[in-house]
Amino acid sequence: MRLFSRKFLGSILLTIGILLRINFDVKDLNSNDPMMTIHISDHESVSADVSFQGVPIAGNATFRPYIMVIAIPFKVAPNTFQPEDGLRISTLTQGEDFTLFSAMIAQDQNEYKIHFINLGEMADANGNRAKLQFDPTYSNLDIVEHQLITTTYSVAFWNYLVKFPIEYDQTDVTIFPPTLITWEDPKTLYMPATSSQLPVAERTSVVIPSSKQNNAIIGEIIIGFLLGILTFSLENYQFRRKIGWLLSTLAVSGLIISISLHYGFMGGINFPFIAVAAFGAPLALGSLYSCVYSLLALKFEAMVNINIFLDNVAFDLVEVAIEVDRGYWRHLKRKVTKLADGKHTFYIWLWKPTAKYRIIPGTSTEFSTTYQGNWKNLEQGKTKVETIHLLTLPNHPQPSL
Asked: Does CATH number 2.60.40.10 belong to domain 301-392?
């Protein structure tokens, strides 16, 4: 409602000014030097500052405010412009590449300034180039709007300064039209005011090397370094299930994913970076899952290690089962170990603090055991060790190890 009322007020004031036929002195286009300074940030966002002078009224004897039209060759979003004290402006109309403002001008002030906080982002040009493009002749305005900005009570045709965040070699920057734009210094371009009567059909454009390309290279270096740390960490199994190892691996995995997303959005389509991220992201996601699983396992998982000996020699060619009674669910797990030394390890998740378990050794006609598989208590985060001794039955040779 407030924005609407400001627009409505601006339109009424402008209409009154036209109807009253306020007598403005005709001014030369370049005499007051209206200036627009366009700033390009490190992240290729665009802002601008404009400065202009009011139009003195003929026969100025007393203070008398009046209305001016100010045209900007950019689409300006609401609440992204800040006029200096003594200037009141409101949006009249806008299109995809222009915005018209009405401004209440105080006659006792010579110069006025407006700061445009955000005029959008530079367009992507072939992945590693960025383009600033605008139409200083306002070719997309309709007839009424075009007549409005060419009256003596308007400011539309600016002298332009384009300021870069860093110094550029002239061969790295493409400008159009080249006959109008000149270099002030390695960080600044200048283009004089362009009259609407000039036959300029193309828009003014400035193309520079994209800073997003450099950001993507930095991202590749960081991800490569973190992948080296992650690979070294994953190869050292002796550190697994250690809280320090888990937290550090979790942090590195999270950094790889975060940096991939951050530089991926900042860098646009950059195939070398995508290749690095495509290699690192699955490894980081897998590590992240493993770390989260292991951290939860430290709290909720119990282990039962079973050592099996046949005639006092470690033996691994036997099936072992464990039955777990969680109170609400009884579950039987079987395992034939592939590890040496006759070690069997069962990992059991317990959502309650305690449960019961019992070991059921495999049966065979070749050996016997006196092991009694009685029910025993099992606790979250604890490890139990069971030892089963097997004896070879008479008339049966000892199985080959």
From this structure: yes
